[in-house]
Amino acid sequence: MKSVLTAAGSLRRLRPGRALRSGLPALLPVLLLLASACGDDHLTRFPQTTFAPATEMASEQMWLFHLTMWMGIVVGLLTFGLMGWILWKFRYRPGGPEAQQFHGNTTLEIAWTLLPALIVAVIAVFTVRAIFITQPEPPANALNVRVIGKQWWWEFQYAVGRDTIITANEIHVPVGQPVQLLLESDNVLHSFWVPQMAGKRDLITNRVNRLVFTPREPGVYMGQCAEFCGDSHALMKMRLIAHTPDGFRQWLENEARPAVEPTDSASAVAVGKKLVTQGVCAGCHVIKGTPMVGRTGPVLTHFGRRRTLAAGIMENNAANLHSWIRNAPAVKPGSKMPQLGGDVQNALSDEQISYIVAYLQSLQ
């Protein structure tokens, strides 16, 4: 009991100025952290940000966030300000008179009941408005893209006349044209999320969900599966690439072509093609213009044009591709891509893998 009284006495003797000075060192790291979030390279350091909206839907969501944030800040400042005033006004004074006790204040109780109700009502009105904005009907000129969530990668399908163009992990869209995504899953739950484009939308087995938005500016926008879906959920990334209308048309025309044939039959590319189209790869992948008809893994027709591999977790270069082919499960746990090199039975040699890498990178 004596120690408690001693501590209480020490607190009473601590002057406000001394308390402020003693608390400043603890506040400095917090202030530096807040300042670091205000730099110009925000998009570089935080590519999956919601604070640089690129569609009307994303702008509406950010506006709603700012509304609730500033209302919360005002309420917090008023609440803590009132608490501070009460603590100062009715603080203990040695030898001073005891504060008058009272119970109940009808006006105050009505005010603190109606004011929160009014704040919640304002938030509710604008939230309902935002819900309707995030669920628009697709216009007649909307580009339809079928999105299928896999474990753990993304497949994107474009219907062009009687043909279907299929790619993986990079969704390409035109600027200024509405885009309707038809979201499906052929396994467990997933969630499509490109923060600068729109909010999260779930991919549910045996159900087709829709997401409609119109990109404003060309660029590369980072995305991610936002629903826990297994071992490599955190490694199920994607990129949304927004083109100018002409750029998108050129991309679509190139994707519709079959794979380019090697010109030199004795080259590393030609040897790689034989290993890919007549080996174990043919059972799981498709390359248009070859006998490959497997549908377990991504379509590889223009694999060399993709910026990343393994669902966006590695840059698409020779070294990374070699590591991926040699032992994919070591890179992405639970991957259905088997280990093809190393100490497994019937393993490919490093030289054979290099030929396969040369062929895949030639598929432009």
UniProtKB/TrEMBL annotation:
It is a multi-pass membrane protein. Its EC number is 7.1.1.9. One of its GO terms (biological process) is ATP synthesis coupled electron transport. It is found in: Cell membrane; Membrane. The keyword Transmembrane helix applies. It comes from the Bacteria. Keywords: Copper, Electron transport, Heme, Iron, Membrane, Metal-binding, Respiratory chain, Translocase, Transmembrane, Transmembrane helix, Transport. Residues 140-254 form the Cytochrome oxidase subunit II copper A binding domain. Residues 267-364 form the Cytochrome c domain. One of its GO terms (cellular component) is plasma membrane. Residues 42-138 form the Cytochrome oxidase subunit II transmembrane region profile domain. It catalyses: 4 Fe(II)-[cytochrome c] + O2 + 8 H(+)(in) = 4 Fe(III)-[cytochrome c] + 2 H2O + 4 H(+)(out). Its main location: membrane. The chain crosses the membrane at residues 63-88, 109-132. Gene3D superfamilies: 1.10.287.90, Cupredoxins - blue copper proteins. Binds a copper A center. It holds the Pfam family COX2. The keyword Iron-sulfur does not apply. Subunits I and II form the functional core of the enzyme complex. Electrons originating in cytochrome c are transferred via heme a and Cu(A) to the binuclear center formed by heme a3 and Cu(B). PANTHER family: CYTOCHROME C OXIDASE SUBUNIT 2 (PTHR22888:SF9), CYTOCHROME C OXIDASE, SUBUNIT II (PTHR22888). This is Cytochrome c oxidase subunit 2. It comes from Longimicrobium terrae.
